[in-house]
# Entry
Amino acid sequence: MESIESLGFRVVMSYPHAIDAFTEGLVFVDGRLFESTGLKERSSLREVSLSNGNVLRKHDVAREYFGEGLALVGDELVQLTWQEGVAFRYDRDSFAERGRWKYTGEGWGLAFDGASLVMSDGSAQIRFRNPHTFDVQRTITVTVAGRPLTQLNELEYADGALWSNVWQTDAIARIDPQTGVVTGVLDLTTLWPADQRPPDADVLNGIAFDSASGEFLVTGKFWPHVYRLAISKISQ
# Structure
């Protein structure tokens, strides 16, 4: 029988976050926070000051594209699009476009596990792609108690596991990247309770891992804060 841990959290710090950011992807590396935002005519790639929320650099994506997940491979940022079937490749330090990949189906979340780009599309399927060609290497089906878990969104790879926002919920699933089995669930309903959010705030979305501290950064679409979380085990 699959064993699923209930995970708890402690808010270590909260930081300001631009409320015009429809957050789709977060990457944190070397103390720098990168963000992909969505919506047609409003999508962007940003470097953001974690301490004060200021947008340090911004690249506006062409109006016809809906930006989605974001991952860093070496010195290159890769940004998905939702239904346009294009993954943009940018220089991390200049945001100059280096190229594009084409793919079929929708693009939702993206992460890099050190060997493959890991991509979600809103289904229970996770695809592992070659980081140099974007060709699919393998696919897993994410399951809870043997049943597929759909609506997998923003992804992060940390401590040997995949972490995924589950769209339209305040839950983050921890996933075994070899089997697809959900091994833990982080319930964030009390982080910013839904009844305390203004009407223009959207769903929880955005996960980044700070490898130096072992803590996570999370936010949501049009949320005014990014939260730094220490994760702990509650029960099994």
Summary: The first strand starts at residue 5 and ends at 16. The mean pLDDT is 96. The domain at 5-235 is CATH 2.130.10.10 (Methylamine Dehydrogenase; Chain H). Residues 113 and 157 are 6 Å apart (CA to CA).
